[in-house]
Amino acid sequence: MFEFLKQLTDPQSIIHYGGLALLLFVVFAETGLLVGFFLPGDSLIFISGMICATHEEILGLNIFYLIIALSLAAIIGNIFGYWFGYKIGPPLFKRKDSLIFKKKYLELTKSFYDKNGGKTLIIGRFIPIIRTFAPILAGVIKVEFKKFMLFNVVGALCWIIMLAGIGFKLGTYDWVQKNIGYIVLFLIIITLIPIIITYKKQKNP
Fold it and tell me: Which domain holds residue 157?
C-alpha cells in the first residue's frame, strides 16, 4: 500500500504504470474528492504535455486530444465535488479531523473564497488544496449551478491548456528533459506560495 501511494504521488510513475486511465483519474480525484489534495496535479499535467511532445505513443493521444481529455476530467471532478458539498452542507465545517479530512483546509479555502469570490474556482485551479476544496465549498454555500459551471469550465481550460501547453512546448528541449525533477520541484514550490500567504493572513488578520 505504501509503495502504491508513493507511486500515486510521483507524476512519472503515474504515467509509466497507469497510462492515460490513471492520469485522468488523478486529475478527477484531485478536483473532486477529499482524498485528492495530496495528488501532484500540476506537475502531472505538465509532464503529460511534455510526453506528448517527445513520446506521444505512451499516452496514445496528441496534445489536442490530451487537453480535451484532461479538461473533461477536471470539469467532471469539480461537478462531483460541488455535488458532495451541496449534499453535505454546512455540517461539513463541524466534521472532526481524520486521516483524509482536515477542517483547516476547508477553512483555508473559505478564507480564499471570501477574498476572491467565484474567481476562486479559476485561480484555485493552480493552487494545491484550494483546487480540491473550492468546488466542495461552492456546493456547501450553494453557489448557483450555472454560475459554478461557468467558472468551472473556464478554470479547467485555463489550468490544463497552460500547464500541458507549456510542458508540450518545453518538452522539445534536451535541457528540460534532463532536469525534469528540478522543474517539478520548482512547480510545487511556486504553487505552495499562495497557500502559505493565505494561511498567514488567516492566522494573523
Answer: 2-203
pLDDT of residue 78: 94
| Cα 169 to Cα 102: distance, rounded to the nearest angstrom | 37
- Alpha-carbon separation of residue 38 from 29, 35, 57, 151, 155 (angstroms): 10, 7, 28, 23, 20
Q: How many structural domains does the chain have?
A: 1
Mind listing the pLDDT tens digit for each residue in 28-71? Answer: 988 888 776 667 778 788 888 888 887 767 777 889 999 999 99
Burial of 130 (0-12, 13-18, 19+ CB in 10 A): buried
Cell numbers at 95, concatenated: 466534521
Phi, psi of 9 (to 5 degrees): -105, 5
Name residue, grid cell 490530451.
Answer: 66
The whole-angstrom separation of Cα 98 and Cα 87 is 20
* pTM of the predicted structure, to 2 decimals: 0.77
Residue type, 175: W
